[in-house]
Write a structure and sequence with these properties.
The chain is mainly alpha-helical. 35% of the residues lie in helices and 2% in strands. The radius of gyration is 24 Å and the shape is globular. The protein is built from eleven helices and two strands; from the N terminus they run H-E-E-H-H-H-H-H-H-H-H-H-H.
């Protein structure tokens, strides 16, 4: 009997250890970012932060004089950045190569026998991406502030940013005794490994579906949020959390999730971020789909698109908020007549309570 008790005790311990194996080992750090008693705290793993610090180190800039003839007057077919001096232009081309194609070098975008030629699709795409960067920095300050973005923010030495997405066809696998999976139970890293529908990006970061979990009016006429919208929304929120390395309380007061008055200021920044990403995907990426060869497109023939992880890559601010624009001020364009959208009805912009 005693032997059986001991074996049972050992089994319980082993089961307990197995159950805890998915949890993060201590120590972890907790930082209060709201009023006491509201559970507003961020949990950080110092080991993860140490790894992230290395990934978010900013590469040094190559100094270049603004004096001398302009690149547009010296080189042929310079359609953007022609107002830079030859020294600045050359320095930036070398820098951009290290950001996007460190292994291939200049030949990734250029015909090295004729640099002015537009024969390589990568050169035309790069030109469009510079213009996109300039527009983001000029028109989306409600999200990027004066920190801004550069090519390095997303690429980090890769031809294609490591975190992009393609529209997924409606899931048809699993029809049978499992029924239609409807994109569920196929865990993906972008959603934190959850079993939620794996493509909340098409409805929310390409289309303009209303993000919400439940309505404030009764069915059938008032409440437009169904179970699919709820699952999409939770999937998108999981993506936010995974992409920024934060938990829900970074943007929400979890005792009143939907209440803007009780939300931290970051929620307003995220509201603009969603619309900025939609702008990128609809007005910059989708229009240049035909520039890409077939092997660079998704299964639906669509171009790679941006989400939160494209820039953030696990950090609450890309590159932990270090601005590179002091070295590349020419990546800030001239605002167009159509600025970033204003906060929608019911969204608190000026009255957001700062949680300290």
């Amino acid at each position: 009997m005693k032997k059986m008790i001991r074996l049972s005790g050992i089994l319980i311990v082993l089961v307990g250890l197995f159950g805890l194996s998915a949890c993060e080992r201590i120590p972890v750090e907790s930082v209060q970012n709201g009023y006491r008693g509201t559970g507003m705290a961020q949990i950080y793993n110092p080991r993860t932060l140490e790894e992230q610090a290395e990934k978010n180190a900013v590469p040094p800039a190559i100094p270049a004089s603004a004096d001398g003839p302009k690149a547009g007057a010296v080189y042929k077919n310079v359609k953007v950045l022609g107002n830079l001096s030859v020294a600045q232009f050359t320095s930036f081309m070398v820098t951009m190569t290290s950001w996007v194609a460190p292994e291939q070098g200049c030949a990734y975008c250029h015909n090295v026998a004729n640099f002015a030629e537009d024969g390589n699709y990568t050169k035309v795409v790069s030109r469009n991406m510079i213009q996109m960067t300039q527009r983001i920095n000029a028109e989306w300050k409600p999200h990027v502030a004066n920190t801004g973005v550069t090519c390095y923010t997303c690429h980090r030495g890769n031809n294609i940013p490591q975190n992009v997405w393609f529209t997924s066809p409606e899931s048809k696998q699993g029809i049978g005794f499992m029924g239609n999976k409807d994109q569920q139970n196929t865990p993906v890293a972008a959603l934190g490994g959850s079993s939620l529908p794996y493509d909340p990006f098409t409805p929310y970061l390409l289309k303009d579906e209303k993000i919400g979990v439940n309505g404030d009016t009764a069915l059938p006429t008032g409440n437009k949020n169904n179970i699919r919208h709820t699952e999409w929304t939770y999937g998108l929120m999981m993506h936010f959390s995974k992409s920024l390395g934060v938990n829900c309380t970074y943007c929400h007061n979890t005792r009143a999730m939907s209440n803007w008055e009780q939300s931290p200021p970051q929620r307003m920044t995220a509201w603009y971020g969603i619309r900025m990403v939609r702008d990128i995907n609809n007005n910059h990426m989708t229009p240049i789909t035909k520039l890409f060869p077939e092997h660079r497109l998704g299964s639906m023939g669509d171009v790679a698109k941006a989400n939160c992880a494209t820039c953030h890559q696990g950090a609450y601010k890309p590159l932990y908020g270090v601005s590179m624009l002091q070295d590349y001020p020419f990546l800030v364009g001239v605002p167009s007549a159509k600025p970033a959208p204003k906060a929608a009805d019911g969204v608190v912009e000026k009255k957001t309570v700062a949680m300290k």
